[in-house]
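sry for the spam today, last one i promise. struct tokens for design, 446 residues
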């Protein structure tokens, strides 16, 4: 069969629409052209979106001979380095991924649980009735403290404050929608002319981050590593198949990648989870009933297994996925998906959002309904907030643990209400979708 149909507007119009209103645009394309559609007109190579589970299974399980994932863009490379998991593909990606996986094995989750609960308690410890807070700011605060602690073992002090402030402002530059387009040009311009521009700022901040991170790595190399339980400690021990440790540049790139990939994604998901838990009275009531048996001394892994809490976490990531799509893949050898013959170089995209909106899989897909996760299990090709295949998010278990424990810790200590209850739609922030800013108020302490 020839390639699927798709919108007839110009590539410029389609890119702008997708950039400004991604979910609405995907809804319209899906309504007009069905499960599978071609975007960007007749441009070559063709770019095709899939959302049918059968297609997604084929894409996620295809051998690299047929489908290869793309790498991150140049801007991400300039931030995270050539050795970042996000910058690599093929065998180099496989090797780096194998080295990065051990810190995310299930036996590590016990230590991470203690850190997540302690940090959440600390952040909310002085809150009293009447306190109003911007939810996204608080969730970013918790998320950045958790990630810097888990990745670098940093908690307090000058070095922690400096690194934290540098990373946040660097990621902010990166996440501004126009910067992803402008910054690569500014960087080139800055290199050529030496002009003090936003590109210059970016480079200076990056150099300061590098100084701090390389100093930390060097210190740790001469210390007794077994004193530390963070990811840096584990990566210093890890060896590849030929027995080689990670180089300092590989360590730096990997550590920054984990912070970058884990910080804003998790804080956005946390904000949504708190929103849904308080916005819908029925959900709120059921969750509190389940959390009634929870005290600060309770076993954290038991809390993370609570069924309704887990269902809220899953439904939060279903309805408004934080990532619009996994890495694009491109065709290397002719192959067929959903009856379409795809030629080499065709770009294959999976829409996580549209896959999560399928009526036959998720009845009333636009309704927040955690019960659906109690009633049936979904395959990895129907439910994919963390992508899939050989690029599936390595921080998925950590992110889910964090959402559940932060939610449980906050709601079992405080009674909360939305300052202005209203229905909300996600907005784009760089590569991810986040809730718009909203406030909550503490109405009581338990
Ligand atoms: C709610 C939070 C999160 C969401 C929704 C999320 C989502 C995703 C998605 C969709 C991908 C692309 C997968 C693909 O192409 O198939 C990804 C990749 C990745 N994520 Fe996450 N992520 C989250 C949290 C985290 C955390 C906490 C970490 C680490 C601390 C992390 C580290 C990574 C890394 C390193 C990759 C690249 C994997 C590779 O290329 O092999 N993520 N994530």
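last one done:
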């Amino acid at each position: 069969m020839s390639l699927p149909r798709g919108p007839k507007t110009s590539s410029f119009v389609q890119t702008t629409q997708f950039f400004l209103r991604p979910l609405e645009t995907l809804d319209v394309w899906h309504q007009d052209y069905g499960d599978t559609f071609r975007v960007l007109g007749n441009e070559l190579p063709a770019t095709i979106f899939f959302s049918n589970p059968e297609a997604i299974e084929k894409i996620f399980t295809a051998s690299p001979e047929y489908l290869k994932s793309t790498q991150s863009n140049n801007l991400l490379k300039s931030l995270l380095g050539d050795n970042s998991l996000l910058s690599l593909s093929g065998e180099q990606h496989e090797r780096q991924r194998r080295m990065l996986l051990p810190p995310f094995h299930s036996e590590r989750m016990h230590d991470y649980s203690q850190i997540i609960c302690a940090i959440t308690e600390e952040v909310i410890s002085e809150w009293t009735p009447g306190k109003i807070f911007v939810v996204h700011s608080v969730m970013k605060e918790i998320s950045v403290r958790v990630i810097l602690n888990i990745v670098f073992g940093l908690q307090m002090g000058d070095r922690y404050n400096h690194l934290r402030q540098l990373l946040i402002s660097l990621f902010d530059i990166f996440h501004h929608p126009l910067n992803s387009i402008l910054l690569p040009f500014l960087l080139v311009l800055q290199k050529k002319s030496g002009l003090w521009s936003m590109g210059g700022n970016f480079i200076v901040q990056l150099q300061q981050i590098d100084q701090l991170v390389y100093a930390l790595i060097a210190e740790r190399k001469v210390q007794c590593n077994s004193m530390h339980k963070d990811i840096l400690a584990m990566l210093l021990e890890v060896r590849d198949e030929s027995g080689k440790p990670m180089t300092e540049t590989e360590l730096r790139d990997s550590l920054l990648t984990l912070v970058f990939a884990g910080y804003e994604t998790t804080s956005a998901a946390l904000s949504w989870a708190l929103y849904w838990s308080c916005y819908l009275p029925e959900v709120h009531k059921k969750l509190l009933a389940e959390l009634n048996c929870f005290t600060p001394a309770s076993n954290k892994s038991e809390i993370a297994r609570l069924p309704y809490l887990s269902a809220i976490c899953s439904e939060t990531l279903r309805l408004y996925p934080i990532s619009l799509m996994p890495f694009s893949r491109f065709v290397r050898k002719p192959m067929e998906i959903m009856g379409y013959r795809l030629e080499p170089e065709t770009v294959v995209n999976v829409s996580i959002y549209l896959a999560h909106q399928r009526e036959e899989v998720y009845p009333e897909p636009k309704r927040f309904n955690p019960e659906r996760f109690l009633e049936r299990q979904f395959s990895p090709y129907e439910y994919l907030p963390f992508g899939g295949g050989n690029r599936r998010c390595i921080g998925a278990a950590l992110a889910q643990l964090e959402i559940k424990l932060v939610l449980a810790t906050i709601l079992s200590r405080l009674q909360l209400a939305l300052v202005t209850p209203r229905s909300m739609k996600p907005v784009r922030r760089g590569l991810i979708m986040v809730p718009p800013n909203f406030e909550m108020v503490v109405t009581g302490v338990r």
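Residues 101 and 394 are 7 Å apart (CA to CA). ok im logging off now
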